[in-house]
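Section 5: illustrative case.
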């Protein structure tokens, strides 16, 4: 029997305990050992919980118990989570995490400690919820040079955008609904401002390109400025709006950014709705690999966490290799130089737009009595776009159009 501790009894923590109980027999069979939750750490009291006897309030009880071989960190953030992870790894316990913030910021250090101590630090659930994406990158794609990764990596914002578009819902109502369903972070700022997507694309890029990509260097734009008018305009042009994390190799540098994009109705990402996530990984031998599934939520996330627990049990005396080396700003290239077609919404007259931009495609949607129009530019980089807009064309919105430019 392998004893484990769960740190944090929020949405993911309760999901992990539930999956371990619900699929006990199968999990025992797959892990080769029975997995027993010995402790649950949370500062809150849960007097009515059927698991109340497992609760402890002090991490040291877990740290000092040699029977605990695996610690499941589902607290989130980089405060107590970082401290407990460092201490657990240093004490020779494997750590399983769903904490993208911690992995994106401190992953390199934590994996180095794990390597030193001969234990595992696994974090499949940190990106894409239930979608297997870390393992495919670390194992199945390793014969490839990866040139690009992009995708919808945040369930909350995808839920909000889908709801705004399909139900004509207000942003605030859609956000509330996402929070009720347990998709949003406790503070939804990280979701709606794109930081959660940024952390996830940083993790995927660090694995794919071998250098630690720090979120603090990444240009990140969220969804708060998107208006219903943009939904109507883009629909009439044959596109949908999706928040994408993108990264690609540009020479010996890596280009990483997060921003809302227009994706064509024919794109593989177009039908990814609600809380679903999807990522495209482009390998030079594999071609495009598309992975999609539930990107957030209690049981989908727990599915990935428990799979990591099983993997750690199976590899109690061997390390699963995941790693990258330290990286910095010098490894990154300027996203403003990436060329693409652009969507612009403006109240400038069509003649003025054509004079500055040349040939453009205007959105058929016309919102009387509003004078606003929207158009798609030819392929230009952001510096050129900003220059043209500075010639007296006020953009209410400007978003890239996803394409192979
Ligand atoms: N808040 C995150 C999301 C949870 O909505 O995708 C899963 O990482």
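Designed sequence:
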């Amino acid at each position: 029997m392998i004893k484990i501790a769960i740190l944090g009894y929020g949405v993911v923590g309760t999901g992990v305990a539930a999956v371990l109980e619900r699929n006990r027999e199968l999990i025992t069979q797959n892990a080769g050992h029975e997995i027993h939750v010995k402790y649950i750490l949370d500062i809150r009291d849960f007097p009515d919980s059927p698991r109340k006897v497992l609760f402890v309030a002090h991490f040291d009880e877990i740290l000092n118990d040699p029977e605990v071989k695996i610690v499941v960190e589902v607290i989130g953030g980089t405060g107590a989570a970082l401290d407990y992870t460092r201490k657990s790894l240093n004490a020779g316990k494997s750590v399983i995490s769903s904490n993208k913030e911690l992995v994106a910021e401190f992953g390199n250090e934590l994996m180095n400690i794990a390597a030193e101590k001969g234990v595992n630090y696994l974090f499949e659930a940190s990106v894409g919820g239930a979608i297997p994406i870390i393992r495919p990158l670390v194992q199945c794609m390793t014969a490839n040079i990866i040139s690009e990764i992009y995708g919808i990596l945040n369930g909350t914002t995808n839920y909000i955008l889908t709801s705004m578009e399909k139900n004509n819902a207000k942003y605030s109502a859609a956000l509330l609904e996402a929070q009720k369903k347990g998709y949003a972070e406790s503070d939804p700022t990280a979701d709606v401002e794109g930081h959660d997507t940024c952390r996830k694309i940083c993790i995927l890029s660090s694995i794919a390109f071998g250098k630690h990509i720090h979120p603090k260097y990444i240009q990140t734009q969220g969804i708060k400025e998107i208006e219903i008018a943009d939904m109507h305009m883009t629909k009439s042009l044959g596109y949908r709006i999706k928040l994408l994390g993108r990264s690609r190799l540009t020479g010996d540098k890596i280009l990483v950014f997060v921003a809302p994009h227009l994706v064509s109705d024919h794109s593989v990402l177009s039908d990814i709705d609600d809380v679903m996530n999807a990522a495209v990984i482009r390998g030079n031998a594999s071609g495009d690999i598309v992975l999609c599934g539930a990107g957030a939520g209690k049981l989908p996330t727990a599915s990935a966490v428990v799979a990591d627990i099983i993997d750690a049990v199976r590899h109690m005396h061997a390390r699963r290799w995941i790693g990258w080396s330290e990286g910095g700003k010098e490894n990154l290239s300027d996203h403003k130089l990436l060329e693409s077609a652009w969507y612009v919404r403006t109240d400038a007259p069509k003649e003025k737009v054509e004079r500055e931009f040349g040939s453009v495609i205007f959105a058929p949607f016309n919102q009387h009595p509003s004078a606003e129009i929207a158009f798609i530019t030819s392929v230009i980089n952001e510096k050129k776009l900003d220059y043209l807009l500075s010639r007296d064309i006020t953009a209410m919105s400007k978003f890239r159009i996803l394409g192979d430019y």
